[in-house]
Design goal:
Elements lengths: L1 H20 L12 E4 L2 E2 L2 E2 L1 H4 L1 E4 L12 E5 L6 E3 L9 E3 L4 E5 L5 E4 L3 E3 L12 E4 L2 E4 L2 E4 L10 H13 L16 H13 L12
Parallel strand pairs: 1-13
Antiparallel strand pairs: 2-3, 4-9, 5-8, 5-11, 6-10, 7-8, 11-12
């Protein structure tokens, strides 16, 4: 009887260890500290300017397969998501202002998030976004956007909006493209590169309400 009890206890301990190691471990994950929202051209997202990669690992530092990774912009009132992310693997929840994807066999998932300005004045500072894995908060990235007015793709009005953000002296996340924690000449250079590339001539169609 004692042998059976001991064996049962060992099995319980082993199961507990497996469950513990399967929990997302923020220190072991690879997550971006900044996420840019991009536009598209000809129905093709501007991946070169916006792709971010996330690698899921558990407490044992092993890759986690099939984890629901959610990028949450609910705190970013000056930004909006595109209802259609042009990505069959991405699920958008407009009401919650989130985009969700699942990690692959290597614990990897890549996001190129389509979106832009919401038409509201700049308000969100650094670290306005959130990244969750199976409900566990892993990161609070700064979220930027090239299409700051959310209309007609990336163009002159967006440059005007960027200059307005710069002129305030506030570190508005939407205009911090180089993830430096401030808005400056390098951000302008990155925006001009994105504009000149011609890869963001289209805004959301449609955007989340």
């Amino acid at each position: 009887m004692r042998t059976l009890l001991l064996a049962g206890a060992l099995v319980a301990c082993a199961l507990h260890a497996v469950r513990a190691s399967a929990e997302p471990s923020a220190p072991n994950w690879t997550t971006p500290s900044c996420i840019p929202l991009v536009g598209s051209h000809g129905g093709v997202p501007a991946t070169a300017f916006g792709q971010v990669e996330i690698i899921a690992r558990d407490l044992a530092n092993d890759p986690m397969v099939g984890v629901a990774v959610v990028v949450d912009l609910s705190n970013c009132l000056d930004l909006q998501l595109c209802a259609d992310q042009l990505d069959p693997g991405a699920i958008v929840n407009c009401a919650a202002k989130t985009v969700r994807k699942l990690t692959d066999a290597n614990g990897h998932v890549a996001f190129t998030i389509l979106g832009g300005g919401s038409g509201q004045p700049a308000s969100t500072l650094l670290g306005g976004g959130k990244i969750f894995a199976n409900g566990t908060l892993l990161q609070t990235p700064t979220v930027s956007a090239y299409d700051l007015d959310g209309s007609s793709g990336v163009g002159a009005n967006d440059l005007s909006a960027w200059l307005g953000d710069f002129g305030t002296g506030n570190p508005f996340g939407r205009s911090d493209y180089d993830c430096s924690g401030s808005i400056g000449a390098n951000d302008l250079s990155i925006w001009l590169g994105a504009f000149g590339s011609g890869t963001m001539t289209e805004s959301c169609g449609p955007s989340c309400p």
